[in-house]
């Protein structure tokens, strides 16, 4: 058994292939990007959250690993992709000789990251949830025809700037968004993202922290 690293995962051919395949399938269905840019950003945010909150280097590494591969289930189907991705990851990580205790942390985090059925079950999963659900940005929109935007396209495209700010001392995790309300009224944002923001609140609570949503300078949650 060996301690696998984030770089090992990033360089693994199977994981690379499955991330690409999942993103391709979602693109055909009209979803926003779930590409290497997305999973890298999620991994960076998850790692930063645990680092600023004082978690161990190994927990930070596991959060980055779980975050990077959290969406590979999309290559099978969007439905229940979290659970599918957890099962696929279990098989690959087992073959790579990862310690069973660490496999358990990684796959449970992947399997619990979706807002429909998921919940934070350990610090790694909480960080993954926060990293994933706060990745709202214009560059994730694939559609170039504004006239045919659906609500998900409009909401993401309307975000001019999005930043996750972590105050380790006060244990605050802030998602700060600048939204062009001429493109997307705030009610549209909450229509599709409220459940995700509430899951972020649960994840922050699990980390003994507080999640705050700030849009155009106003605290919403």
TrEMBL record:
**InterPro entries given for it?**
HD/PDEase_dom (IPR003607), HD_domain (IPR006674)
Q: Pfam families given for it?
A: HD
Q: Which GO terms describe its molecular function?
A: hydrolase activity
Domain named HD is located at 36-109
Q: Does the keyword Nucleotidyltransferase apply?
A: no
Keywords (alphabetical) are: Hydrolase
UniProt KW Metal-binding keyword:
no
Would you tell me the protein name for this molecule? HD domain-containing protein
């Amino acid at each position: 058994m060996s301690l696998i690293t984030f770089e090992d995962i990033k360089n693994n051919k199977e994981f690379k292939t499955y991330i690409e395949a999942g993103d391709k399938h979602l693109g055909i269905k009209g979803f926003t990007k779930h590409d290497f840019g997305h999973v890298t950003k999620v991994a960076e945010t998850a790692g930063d959250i645990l680092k600023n909150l004082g978690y161990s280097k190994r927990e930070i590494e596991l959060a980055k690993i779980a975050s990077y591969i959290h969406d590979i289930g999309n290559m099978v189907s969007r439905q229940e992709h979290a659970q599918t991705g957890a099962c696929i990851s279990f098989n690959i990580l087992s073959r790579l000789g990862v310690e069973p205790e660490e496999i358990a942390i990684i796959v449970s985090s992947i399997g619990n990251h979706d807002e429909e059925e998921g919940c934070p079950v350990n610090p790694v999963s909480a960080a993954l949830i926060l990293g994933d659900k706060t990745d709202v940005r214009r560059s994730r929109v694939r559609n170039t025809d504004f006239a045919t935007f659906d609500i998900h396209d409009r909401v993401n495209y309307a975000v001019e700037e999005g930043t996750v700010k972590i105050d380790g001392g006060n244990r605050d995790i802030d998602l700060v968004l600048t939204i062009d309300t001429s493109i997307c009224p705030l009610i549209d944002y909450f229509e599709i993202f409220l459940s995700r923001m509430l899951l972020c609140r649960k994840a922050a609570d699990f980390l003994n922290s507080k999640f705050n949503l700030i849009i155009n300078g106003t605290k919403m949650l």
